[in-house]
Amino acid sequence: MAEEEVKLHGAWGSPFSKRVEFALKLKGIHYHYIEEEVLTKNKSPELLKYNPVHKKIPVLLHKGRPIAESQVILEYIDETWKGYPILPQEPYERATARFWARFIDEKCWPSVWSSFSEGKKEEAIENLKLLEKELEGKKFFGGEKIGFVDIVANFIAYWVPLIEEATGKQLLGEEFPALCRWKDEYVSSAVIKEHLPSRDKLVAHFRARFPSN
Amino acid sequence: MTKVVVLLDFWLSPFGMRVRVALAEKGVEYEYREEDLGNKSQLLLQMNPVHKKIPVLIHNGKPICESLVIVQYIDETWKNKAPLLPSDPYQRAEARFWGDYIDKQIYSCGRRLWTTKGEEQEAAKKELIECFKVLEEHLGDRTYFGGDNLGFVDVALIPFYSWFYAFETCGNFKMEEWCPKIVSWAKTCMQRESVSKSLVDPLKVCHDFVLPRRKTLGLD
User: Fold this and answer.
1) pLDDT > 90: what percent of chain A?
2) Which one of A141, B132, B168, B174 counts the least CB within 10 Å of its CB?
3) Strands (E), chain A
4) Taking CB atoms and an 8 Å cutoff, what residues of chain A touch B153?
5) Is the pLDDT of residue A1 over 60?
């Protein structure tokens, strides 16, 4: 069965997992989804077999072969299935997209997380300012349509506002007009809005996860 | 800037060496510019305002930053010679996965090994050896990680061979005892001119940089 050809081991609330789902949906690929209990650390034997190095979701299985690490999976999806282009075609634009995707995962993600868990906002603000500058004058990081960097930045668009709501701490303020406009466009765009995780569930999760004011 | 391709680099940076190997494999002529990391050039700050780090490849005036991003750019731009990434998407994904693994594990473990002492150093050494053992298992019986030819993962990992002697000296161990296949793989890579001309002398890394730095840090 075509559906069984593509399987995704993911977690409902994980932005990394959702990145892969968004990409599959944008390409119109049918897949079988397996929920992993990452919070209870009760990982399935399949997950441990398919990602023995990191033991993490997401893991995509295509024709029985596993691919791990969300950005690697996104590139695999883009190269395997034609249709909606996730990365640009031109080498310099591809390099630019990969650069910003790395920046988001290596710098933005940890600093944003620290700003909520430890109250250290400075680094997060600096990193977001760099993203803001990159986004200026564009509808999406990918230009007119959602692309690789937009998908990787998904946690800023949807998860960060929910952490703000849960903790009462603001990060995406008035000094980020481009990012604020972008996040609204992103979460209301056709394919993305139908596949976002439950707002209420996430807010409840973040209320428990982060210390309140 | 008269040359079309310029590389801003620092002699012993494993990240810089990756780019040198990739350019050499492709036979690309370029201008090498050594940066003084204690006094970074205006050009570097202008070309990499986000990280202010080397390596930076400047091609026709446009900068590309982050070593594995640069290596992929080189592979896609000069595509008619020495392909570094395979053509099959699954093998490409595997190569990118291991490139990411090397980025996340090898550099930070190695750095902890040479910048600490005592228990912290011992823990870093164990972790570094463990990471190389994982890579060794992935290499299997192949000549290169890329199969019959040097590939993306080989380019990502081989520069650390310049640092083996420094790791061994600081950690008091021999890589050959723990990861003989990795050492043998590295020696095979070194037989290629693109690698031997791009990597720096391991003795220089240790004696001219690491040991003096350890003294300055009060570790020895």
Assistant:
1) 90
2) B174
3) 6-10, 32-35, 59-62, 65-68
4) none
5) no
* Residue A174 and residue A126 share a domain: yes
Each residue's pLDDT tens digit, B69-100: 999 999 999 999 999 999 999 999 999 999 99
The whole-number average pLDDT for the span B116-131 is 97
Q: Note whether B52 and B106 are same-domain residues.
A: no
In this structure, is residue B84 part of a structural domain? no
Chain A CB within 8 Å of residue B62 CB: yes
Give me the amino acid identity at A203. V
Identify which of A67, A73, A95 has the shortest CB distance to residue B69.
A95
Its ipTM equals 0.96
B97·A69 Cβ contact <8 A:
yes
**Token reading at B120:** 């912290």
Helix (H) or strand (E) holding B192: none
- Residue A32 belongs to a domain with what CATH number? 3.40.30.10
Using a CB-CB cut-off of 8 Å, the residues of chain B touching A98 are: 66, 69, 72
Segments forming the whole domain that contains residue B108: 89-216
Interface of B with A in 80-99 (CB under 8 A): 89-90, 92-94, 96-97
* Structural tokens at position B139: 């290499």
pTM (2 decimals)? 0.96
Structural domain boundaries, residue A197: 91-209
